[in-house]
Amino acid sequence: QGMPQVSRLFLALCAIVIPLFAAGCGYRFQSAHNPLLDLGIRKIYVAEFRNKTYRPGIEHFFTTAMIREIAHSKSFELTSSKADADAVLSGEVSSAEDSVNATSNVMVGDRPVAIASEYNARVSCSITLTDRRGRKIFNHAVSGNKSHPGSGTLGDAGATAPLNNDSEQRLAVQFLAGEMMASAYQRMIDTF
Question: What is the pTM of this model?
């Protein structure tokens, strides 16, 4: 006929301890709180990021990742028109490099050839949030790096297959875009 006293006490303690433990570990429960409401910002337009690198199309990864972050947070309304927005979030991918992390030797005929077995993708970008009057509300630079495998497939004259390496590099950059935009968005939210 009802819960025993010990069970009720246990549930009450769990209701208090679990959120405190989660907060102590750095976890936050996602909420739709809008920290920019006092500035009159409810609707955000995400402009296509600018690409200052020699890697075509890389800006799309970052634009898409930022749109996904804002949509996921539900703190703001995304708008497809700059004219309807209370603020514009713009970005610029300033550098994107790929360097060799590790090599391995493979035999080509009777001679060993060193090929790249692992690369490191490094990307830097910045984001800026500007209100309707053109005033910068937030500006932040972020960078990241991620290792990715090199192709072990040899093509002509013992060279590695460039399409395989390019594909792995693009996957690494796409991963970095998601991580970097999540970090930048969180920094923006935490600033206000």
Answer: 0.73
